[in-house]
Design brief:
The structure is a single chain. With about 300 residues, this protein is an alpha/beta fold. It is built from twelve helices and eight strands. Strands 1-2-3-4-5-6-7-8 form an eight-stranded parallel β-barrel, surrounded by seven helices.
């Protein structure tokens, strides 16, 4: 991290709320469920499906973790009532993984059952390397009990091909990402080229297993390679989709959509938007530079 990056990131805790909110506004639907529902309905009108995520992580109190599940249940019910093509995405530490793996599983299990009754999918997110093993264990237990549960895998991590090989036989629903967490070189690719190559090879491994894939990326060159890979392997467009972040490179969404690709938008919301934004910016200074540059260019 450069000296300028450190200096800029050091200002985050003292930036006024209005400025932080402006930084986050394009990328976060709002603080209330109603905000997220309006955003998702607007995306639907433009031909895009969605992912709903309640902001938050690293919950260390059981009552708070149970309250998170209640919030997600309400969000899932509201999505289903409106007939939106949306699935639910939840971070393991938001459901108390750092407190208890068993509690985390039980809360996911409750939410997966609720989503299943509504015919909605539930995605187990992937966080930093300290949670990978526990997250995969929770996912495998859920997958054995619920048909509509998926997982996220990160091409940045050197272990991912082995993790793919260890996943139990049967249907797989995977969201492939490069990975936002800046991990040590001993366990992760640290340069863009190797991360991109690993993404393609991980996708190839998963497609060979018949997995239904979600390619989460804003890397246009990578997307072209993934589309070509699907054509090479005879994978129908109905069996994969591209996923993007709210507010990021919307012109690219339109391009893919016009070309006949399925595109799904990640829509986060909630009162913890500032803590979420601060943590994300600290974990990856490149995002901070991107947001600041975008803000200045729009002035």
């Amino acid at each position: 991290m450069s000296v300028l990056d450190r200096a800029a990131l050091a200002t985050l805790p003292v930036l006024p709320r209005w400025l932080m909110r402006r930084l986050a506004a394009r990328y976060i639907a709002g603080e209330e469920l109603a905000d997220a529902l309006r955003t998702l309905a607007g995306l639907k009108s433009r031909g895009f499906s969605g992912i709903i995520d309640v902001l938050g992580e690293d919950v260390l109190d059981e009552a708070a973790a149970r309250a998170v599940v209640s919030g997600y249940r309400a969000a899932a019910s509201a999505v289903a009532e409106r007939g939106l093509d949306v699935y639910v995405s939840v971070k393991p530490t938001h459901l108390g993984l750092r407190l208890s793996e068993e509690l985390c599983f039980q809360l996911y299990d409750e939410l997966a059952a609720h989503c299943g009754r509504l015919a909605l999918g539930l995605r187990v997110e992937m966080e930093d390397n300290t949670t990978t093993d526990a997250t995969l264990r929770v996912f495998e237990r859920l997958r054995a009990r619920h048909a509509r549960v998926g997982i996220v895998l990160q091409s940045r991590l050197l272990r991912t091909p082995a993790d793919i090989a260890r996943l139990a036989p049967g249907p797989l629903w995977v969201r492939m990402v490069k990975g936002i967490y800046l991990e040590p070189a001993e366990i992760a690719h640290t340069e863009p080229g190797p991360i991109r190559e690993a993404y393609v090879e991980d996708a190839r491994l998963l497609l060979a297993r018949g997995a239904r894939l979600c390619f989460a990326t804003h890397d246009e060159l990578l997307a072209e390679r993934l589309s070509a890979l699907c054509r090479e392997l005879g994978v129908a467009r109905e069996h994969y989709e591209f996923q993007v972040l709210l507010g990021v490179r919307e012109g690219l969404w339109q391009k893919w959509h016009a070309a006949g690709e399925r595109v799904r938008v990640y829509v986060p919301f909630g009162p913890e938007w500032r803590a979420y934004s601060t943590r994300r910016l600290r974990k990856n200074p490149e995002i901070f530079r991107h947001v600041m540059r975008d803000l200045l260019l729009r002035r």
